[in-house]
Every structure is written in structure tokens, then in C-alpha cells.
Specification:
Keywords: Amino-acid biosynthesis, Decarboxylase, Lyase, Lysine biosynthesis, Pyridoxal phosphate
Bound molecules: pyridoxal-5'-phosphate
Distance between the termini: 49 Å
CATH topology of the largest domain: TIM Barrel
CATH superfamily of the largest domain: Alanine racemase
GO molecular function, one term: diaminopimelate decarboxylase activity
Modified residues (N6-(pyridoxal phosphate)lysine): 56
Structural class: alpha/beta
CATH class of the largest domain: Alpha Beta
CATH architecture of the largest domain: Alpha-Beta Barrel
Oligomer: single chain
Helix content: 25-40%
Largest sheet: 9 strands, mixed
Binding site for substrate: 275, 310, 314, 342
Protein name: Diaminopimelate decarboxylase
Length: 420
């Protein structure tokens, strides 16, 4: 069980709404900072630990800057994400550039920033060399493919578009060595929203074994191994969270049993998590606009799938609290919807909640990662503001809401570009 307690009260949110109308996402700075420290502390037992926050999860420079203050780097996969990291003061080897199907100008920008470049394919070695030159340090993304005897935990990496095959890894490092590259990394990312600790320990073990083999056969020293992201969060109250201590202990054991015993260089251990870093510390606040009773009972909110698409596209559960009715009996069954002309625009289906009235404020939990970030403009819906709840209880707007002018700004049609 995890607590779904809120870091704010109804009256605090009623105050905020006077300045920043709903809907908006609000992020709990103190909780994000505490969690970052917790992760760092837990992983201090593994060799050279560092976390590169996956920018795509919450691409806001205010958040990147907060995380950088705790020693986190940034994991980027596009030019705008590289620019966000740069603006937040994260540069050089504090940036991991883990992209795929990458255009030349993105490799160029990554080189210019001195980022660690993680190549997704063997053909990108020559491509990178041609378009931007090879850097001192190069990392490859590994796709372990069909695992011997199958692996119940890891599933079917061979179905994923990412990474090098096992054979390509060996060939690729030989190529790099011949081209004079001296510093090497290895990366993989095969999980998403995974709550089983063993999964990460197993992935680490697979990578560590490959590192030992490549180090010996190719005769190179690995500087780091990047275990990717994918650590899950308990969206449902009845789920259990992953404790960083448990992942760290398992990874350390796997490291000691493989790399630790081999006569090779001892690489640092990196992660590039997004969801587990900020996910539980963001909330989408929305006001109930209409109640509708037909064959089912509907709560129509002023937010929609454009503000949070996970329930709509994955059927994902997001906990909902009705502010001020936390302790009321949950004896009404509702579908909580948005206003898109799209029937999967529902934040919850058949959810037991207290009796809801027009004007109630709803809190949709766990929107701090892959929430705002996945927004879109279908049906002419506008992206919301993002607010930061500061440790002193004050609220700072860290991104304003989109306006109709923003929506029309790419059009050059009879004055539409300047709607007022
Ligand atoms: C999405 C992604 C991450 C972050 O994933 P989370 O599930 O948010 O931890 C990290 N690395 C890569 C390459 C990704 O694509």
C-alpha cells in the first residue's frame, strides 16, 4: 500500500486557482528534492553512481535545474531536449544523448555540448564520424535480443526497435578502437514502469557479463555502464513502491559477482530514470464543469486527454481525490471525463468516489512524469500551465498555459495568426 496523501490542502488550491485557473499541473519541489537525495544515498553503494534524468518525462528547465542541484545530469533524445538541458545549465558529460533514428543536426549539437553520445545502431558510428566527428567517449545501446531459454522477467527485447545486437556490439567496439576512440560506455533500456526489483538486477547482470566479455575479447576498458530507466511507480494505492535501497543492493551484488571478480577496469554505474524521479510528485488539478446522468454517471472536467493521455491510450490508472471530500464515503460510481470528441477521453472508468457536484476540484495523482509532456492539441485543446509548489508553501508558475494565439501561431491565414 502507498499513501495517496496530498502535499496541499483544499484551501491552498482554492487560493492558487484565483491566480492560475484550472486545469494545471502542480509539482511538489520538496518531495522531488527529497526523492533525489534518497536515490543518491541508496546508490552510493555502487561504483560511481550517477542519474541522468530523462528529460522527456518532465521537460521543464526549472525542474532540470532543481535536479542538477542534486548532482543529476540529463538524458536527452532530441535537439529541443538538448537545448532545455543547456538552458538549465547542464552541459558536457552531464548530458547523455540517448536518441534513435537521429538526424545529423542533433548529433552536431550533442558534440558541440560535449555530451556523452549513446549510439542506437552500428551504422551510426560512421554517420556520426561523417556529420560531427567522433568524440573521445562513445556509448552503445545494447538490445539483448532473444535471451537464452527465454527470460520471463525481461520479455522479448528482440521485438524492440532499439539498440545493437550482441554480435554488433563486439564489431562496433572493435571499429571504435581502430578509429582511435579511447573511452567507452554500454547502455540498455528494456523496461518501462516496472515494479519488480529483480527485473533491474537481472538486466544489470546481463550487461555486466557482456562488459566482462567485451573488455577481455576486444581489449578495451569500460568507463561506465548505463542501466537505463524504467523504474515504475505505484499508480494504484494497493501497489508497492520500489525502494532504491533494494535496487542498489541487487545491482551491487550482480556487479561484485561479475565485473568485481574479473581482471578488468571497474566501470561506473549510471541510470537514466524519468518516471520514478518526478512521477509521484505531480498533480493535475481540474474543476468539475458538468455532471451528466445517462446510462452511466459522468463527471465532466475542464481538463482532457490533452493534459494527461496515459488513461486514454494505455487504460492507465491514475488515482483521483475530490478535494475536501477525502474522508467522505466513496459510494458513487463515475466515469471521469474530458471534453474531447473521443470516447476514450476518460481519466477514470467506473471509479468509486464521493458524491461529486459541479465546481468540485479534483486532483489527478502521479502526473509528474509523462503527464504534461505527452500533451497535444487535438480538438483545438490547449496545453495547461505548470506550477511549482515551493518548499516554503508558495507557488511559482514555471510554464504559462497556452493561448489561442499560441495555437494559431503556425498559421498564416487571413489574420488567424493574431487572434485576439
Ligand atoms: C523513456 C526513456 C527513459 C526514461 O524512462 P522512465 O520510464 O521514465 O524511467 C530513459 N531512457 C530512455 C532511452 C528512454 O527512452
Amino acid at each position: 500500500m502507498v499513501s495517496k496523501e496530498l502535499p496541499f490542502t483544499k484551501s491552498q488550491i482554492e487560493e492558487v486557482v484565483k491566480t492560475y485557473p484550472t486545469p494545471f499541473h502542480i509539482y511538489d519541489e520538496k518531495a522531488i528534492r527529497d526523492n533525489a537525495e534518497d536515490m543518491k544515498h541508496s546508490f552510493s553503494v555502487v561504483q560511481g553512481f550517477k542519474e541522468f534524468f530523462a528529460v522527456k518525462a518532465l521537460p521543464n528547465p526549472y525542474i532540470l535545474k532543481i535536479l542538477a542541484e542534486h548532482g543529476f545530469g540529463a538524458d536527452c533524445s532530441s535537439l529541443p531536449e538538448l537545448l532545455l538541458a543547456e538552458k538549465a545549465g547542464i552541459t558536457g558529460e552531464n548530458i547523455m544523448f540517448s536518441s534513435n533514428d537521429t538526424p545529423a543536426e542533433e548529433f552536431k549539437k550533442a558534440r558541440e555540448l560535449g555530451a556523452i553520445i549513446n549510439l542506437d545502431d552500428i551504422s551510426h558510428i560512421e554517420y556520426l564520424e561523417k556529420v560531427a566527428g567522433l568524440p573521445d567517449i562513445v556509448c552503445f545501446r545494447y538490445n539483448p535480443g532473444p535471451l537464452k531459454g527465454g527470460n520471463e522477467l525481461i520479455g522479448k527485447p528482440e521485438e524492440a526497435k532499439y539498440g545493437f545486437t550482441r554480435e554488433q556490439l563486439f564489431d562496433g567496439y572493435v571499429m571504435l578502437k581502430q578509429k582511435g576512440v579511447k573511452r567507452f560506455g554500454l547502455h540498455t533500456m528494456v523496461a518501462s514502469n516496472e515494479l519488480n526489483v529483480d527485473y533491474f538486477v537481472e538486466t544489470a547482470r546481463i550487461l555486466f557479463e557482456v562488459i566482462v566479455e567485451i573488455s577481455q575479447k576486444v581489449g578495451i576498458n569500460f568507463e561506465f555502464v548505463n542501466l537505463g530507466g524504467g523504474i515504475g511507480i505505484p499508480y494504484r494505492p494497493e501497489q508497492e513502491r520500489i525502494f532504491f535501497d533494494d535496487v542498489a543492493a541487487g545491482v551491487k551484488m550482480a556487479y561484485d559477482a561479475t565485473i568485481g571478480k574479473a581482471d578488468i577496469a571497474q566501470p561506473n554505474v549510471y541510470f537514466e530514470c524519468g518516471r520514478v524521479i518526478t512521477g509521484p510528485y505531480g498533480y493535475l488539478i481540474t474543476e468539475v464543469r458538468h455532471m451528466k446522468h445517462i446510462y452511466k454517471d459522468y463527471v465532466g472536467t475542464d481538463a482532457c486527454m490533452a493534459n494527461l493521455m496515459r488513461p486514454g491510450i494505455y487504460g492507465a490508472y491514475h488515482h483521483i481525490t475530490v478535494l475536501g471530500k477525502e474522508n467522505a464515503p466513496h459510494d458513487f460510481k463515475y466515469d471521469v471525463t474530458g471534453s474531447l470528441c473521443e470516447n476514450n477521453d476518460k481519466f477514470a472508468v467506473d471509479r468509486m468516489l464521493p458524491e461529486i457536484e459541479r465546481g468540485d476540484l479534483l486532483v489527478i495523482h502521479d502526473t509528474g512524469a509523462h503527464g504534461f509532456a505527452m500533451g497535444f492539441n487535438y480538438n483545438g485543446k490547449l496545453r495547461s500551465a505548470e506550477l511549482l509548489l515551493r518548499p516554503d508553501g508558495s507557488v511559482k508558475q514555471i510554464r504559462r498555459a497556452e493561448t489561442i494565439d499560441d495555437y494559431f501561431s503556425t498559421l498564416d491565414f487571413d489574420g488567424l495568426g493574431s487572434f485576439k
